[in-house]
Write a structure and sequence with these properties.
The complex is a heterodimer of chains A (347) and B (313). Chain A is mainly α. Chain A has 13 helices and 2 strands, in the order βαααααααααααααβ. Chain A has a single domain, classed as Orthogonal Bundle (ABC transporter involved in vitamin B12 uptake, BtuC), CATH 1.10.3470. Helices cover 73% and strands 2% of the residues of chain A. Chain A has a two-stranded antiparallel sheet with strand order 1-2. The chains are: A mainly alpha (347), B mainly alpha (313). At the A-B interface, helix 6, helix 11 and helix 13 of A face helix 5, helix 11 and helix 13 of B.
Chain lengths: 347, 313
């Protein structure tokens, strides 16, 4: 018995792989829910109800999915070129911090200021990933470790800034940054919910990334760089320039996630504002098989698990960490599922 | 300034170096063993978290400390086996699988912890490993408290470094492991099974990582709390590169790193007007600088991250 690479993957398998992976992850996690002496089916029912059961819960879920779409795109773009950007979390925070800082003192009308702030957040994220990209291209330093370590550095830096120069004097000593000016808060998408137009921006970003990857020279170069760097070089692709471009785009997407979360949800920055959006983005990208359209679907799945698990935990007492377990398991099962989409078993 | 220098002559600083180095020594040796066989194990951060939880939990439920350490090693080995199965026989991406293991192992550790300790309760404590105070030797001025008054796992870590260095450099098994990381086809040609060797190395290396994590809850502190590994796993991955994949240098790297960490902790108390976060950043910045310094000269195992499939080139 051996594995043989498929020349092309039938569409059926492309769709079935993530569904099968998610199902397998849910079955595996059911054992752990059982360990909490709760009926898994009942727990999953509560989870669905908590995330999709009412108008309010759906908007909460979509609010949670918004940054995940962007961090998922960030990981997908980078992983396509085999640039291992594990620093989405840090880029998210630096984007958020920059947005809060500029947005607090900027004197512009809202319609002009919001795009300016988005660009600020994107620039912060892009610059943060440019560092590890340069280190890899110049000195051969592996970007996995540098981007991971930068996450810790950035979060400490955020802590430093919100206890120091950017401290909100009105927060009663609570460590929180100054908020963005009211003009720069993103308008609600649905009145009296937390859902804001950031969702539309994230969806537009997914469309744009898809267009760039599928229809531009840069997109082809990105894919070539990931599939076979040697062949790409022989084909005349300037690999360093492509990697650098990918790093800027990927960092900018994660930074944008932070900018939008600040303008749309939190107003100011705290060191706990992200429940791991950057890391979950990696799972989102993998579940999506690095495809931008898949990223949207995968982000909705992950957001459903997270929002649903909180409600389920309140109702049944199962620790809400079950959400992290399900999400992590689905990354591992998806990895195995990809084996079946890329290879066939021959006897 | 004088105070900052004075710190260097304080025996408690140097005693702390060995203590802080212990989880790093276990972790860096574990990561090194995996990588010498050709498998990058980014599961380390989660495996250390799992080890920290498993060791603590065993003692909390009435086991003794050594049983706890063994359970932590076993939990680490189990996670390692999962990583090995995905990356060696199946040949899946070592990067993605490793990150998946880290996410899974930490989530599982937190989940199991929360099954036992509900939110809002103060973290239950255990009686951790005590300092050994080796009779006679620990009374030697200066050196005594530094070298001979550590906890048992610290000596175990130092011993493991010696054993691993010897095994890798001087035994047929070590040669087989190193060759698997350089050229698995040659291993096959020798009639050995590179797949089995890789699985074995990853499982054993992950057991060491689990013990490194357990040191945190069973000797350095006496309870478990989320996020307690604090990137130590990632620092170990950087240290392996810094050490050019050599056990001796890895030990030295862990000690050097622990020295800076112990020093910055004490410096915080004497230097005023500098935000504490800058001190806390130092270890991470230092790791990146170390990587930059050695990256050009690094002798990476040839077949690191290259999946081995029989009969495929």
């Amino acid at each position: 018995m051996r594995l043989e690479r498929r020349a092309d993957t039938p569409l059926r398998l492309v769709v079935l792989a993530p569904l099968g992976a998610v199902l397998a992850a849910l079955i595996l996690a059911a054992g752990l829910i059982g360990a909490a002496k709760v009926d898994p089916l009942m727990a999953y029912g509560e989870m669905l109800r908590g995330a999709l059961g009412s108008r309010l819960s759906v908007t909460e879920m979509l609010t949670r999915a918004t940054p995940l779409i962007l961090t998922g795109l960030a990981a997908a773009v980078a992983f396509r070129a085999r640039l291992w950007n594990i620093g989405g979390e840090g880029q998210f925070y630096l984007g958020a911090l920059t947005t809060a800082w500029v947005g607090h003192s900027l004197a512009l009308p809202g319609a002009l200021g919001i795009p300016v702030l988005m660009v600020c957040g994107m620039a912060a994220g892009a610059l943060l990933l440019a560092g590890p990209a340069v280190l890899r291209l110049r000195f051969g330093v592996d970007e996995v470790v540098t981007t991971l370590l930068l996450n810790f550095i950035v979060i400490l830096f955020v802590g430093l800034m919100i206890e120091g120069p950017l401290k909100d004097p009105l927060a009663f000593g609570w460590p929180q940054s100054v908020p963005v000016a009211g003009d720069f808060r993103l308008p609600d998408l649905i009145a009296r919910t937390r859902l804001h137009i950031g969702l539309l921006i994230a969806l537009a970003a997914a469309g744009l990334v898809w267009l760039i990857l599928a229809r531009t020279v840069f997109g082809v170069e990105t894919r070539a760089a990931g599939l076979n760097p040697r062949a790409a070089t022989f084909a005349g692709i300037a690999l360093p320039r492509t990697i650098m471009g990918v790093a800027l785009v990927s960092g900018a997407l994660a930074g944008l996630a932070g900018a939008i979360e600040v303008m749309g949800v939190t107003g100011g920055v705290t060191t706990t504002m992200s429940p791991g959006f950057g890391y979950a983005g990696i799972v989102v990208a993998m579940l999506a098989a690095l495809h931008p359209a898949g990223v949207v679907a995968a982000a909705i799945f992950v957001a459903t698990v997270f929002v649903g698990a909180d409600a389920m935990s309140r109702a049944t007492g199962v620790p809400s960490f079950i959400a992290d377990v399900i999400v992590a398991l689905s990354l591992l099962t998806m990895l195995v599922a990809l084996l079946f989409t890329n290879y066939r078993i021959r006897r | 300034m004088i105070e900052a220098l004075d710190l260097l002559f304080n025996t408690s600083l140097w005693a702390a170096v060995l203590r802080i180095a212990t989880p790093l020594i276990f972790g860096v040796l574990g990561a090194l063993l995996c990588e010498r066989a050709g498998v990058l194990n980014l599961g380390i951060e989660g495996i250390m978290t799992m080890g920290a939880m498993a060791g603590w939990l065993t003692v909390h439920l009435g086991g003794d400390l050594w049983t706890g350490l063994a359970v932590a090693a076993a939990a680490g080995a189990l996670m390692g086996l999962l990583h090995a199965m995905l990356t060696v026989p199946l040949g899946l991406s070592q990067h993605v699988s490793g990150l998946g293991i880290t996410l899974f192992a930490s989530a599982l550790a937190y989940y199991l912890y929360r099954l036992i300790v509900t939110v809002g309760d103060s973290p239950p404590t255990i009686t951790p490993f005590r300092r050994l105070d080796i009779p006679g030797l620990s009374d030697i001025p200066v050196l005594g408290p530094i070298l001979f008054a550590q906890t048992a796992p610290t000596y175990l870590a130092l011993g493991t470094a010696l054993v691993l260095a010897y095994v890798l450099a001087r035994t047929p098994m070590g040669l087989a492991i190193r060759m698997t990381g350089e050229n698995p086809h040659a291993v096959e040609a020798q009639g050995l099974n590179p797949i089995a060797i890789r699985i074995g190395a990853v499982v054993a290396g992950s057991a060491l990582m689990g013990m490194g994590g357990a040191f945190l809850t069973m000797a350095a502190f006496n309870s478990f709390f989320p996020e307690m590994v604090q990137g130590r796993g990632w620092i170990c991955i950087a240290l392996v590169v810094f050490a050019s994949w050599r056990p001796g240098k890895a030990l030295a790297g862990a000690l050097l790193f622990a020295f800076f960490d112990a020093y910055q902790l004490r410096l915080q108390t004497v230097v005023e007007g500098v935000p504490y976060q800058l001190f806390l950043m130092a270890p991470y910045i230092l790791s990146i600088v170390a990587l930059i310094l050695v990256a050009r000269r690094a002798r990476v195992p040839e077949a690191l991250m290259a999946p081995y499939r029989r009969g495929e080139r």
